[in-house]
Amino acid sequence: MNKMGINAEKYILQIFDLNQEIETLKDDQEDLKILLETITEHSTDLENEIYEKNQIMIKYLQQVEIITTAAAAVEAGTFEINSLDEISQRTDELGQLSRVFQNMVIQIKVREENLRKQVAELKIEIDQKKQARQVAEIIQTDSFQSLKHKLQKLKQIKNDTKHFA
């Protein structure tokens, strides 16, 4: 074979190799396009999932804030028991916390009312004892004893005059 034939054959082999490499690159390019589409789809799904979870977390934190506000309202004496009803319907720990909080406030109100009643009863009892002590002090004074003695004399005189008439 002549030199030109060898070079032509060499070029033909190189062209064949290059065509195979081009086909491989085209296949790789198709694979990369598919991979890019798949990644784009999954990233959109992940973005949507993250957004949804973020919305759930925002609502959760808003409800935690409602419970915190309720605690401050208890401290200020302005708590409304039904302010936690929505949160109390949750089935998770936050719902449980809300229900326990509502029950505690109810128990506190009952205890406070009982204490107020007891204080009122004690005030009445103290006032009665104070009054009895003051009466006892008055009865023991000389002037009261003198008045009592004069009253007895007047009664006696009145009874005596009734018998004579």
UniProtKB/TrEMBL annotation:
As given in the record, the signal peptide range reads none
Listed transmembrane segments? none
- Origin, by domain of life? Bacteria
Q: Does the keyword Nucleotide-binding apply?
A: no
- Output the Gene Ontology terms for molecular function: kinase activity
Could you tell me which residue ranges the HAMP domain spans?
Answer: 61-113
What is any one GO biological process for this UniProt entry? signal transduction
User: Has the keyword Kinase been applied to this entry?
Assistant: yes
Any one annotated GO CC term: membrane
Keywords assigned by UniProt, alphabetized:
Coiled coil, Kinase, Transferase
Coiled coil segments of this chain: 8-35, 105-139
**Protein name per UniProt:** Histidine kinase
Organism of origin is Aphanothece hegewaldii CCALA 016
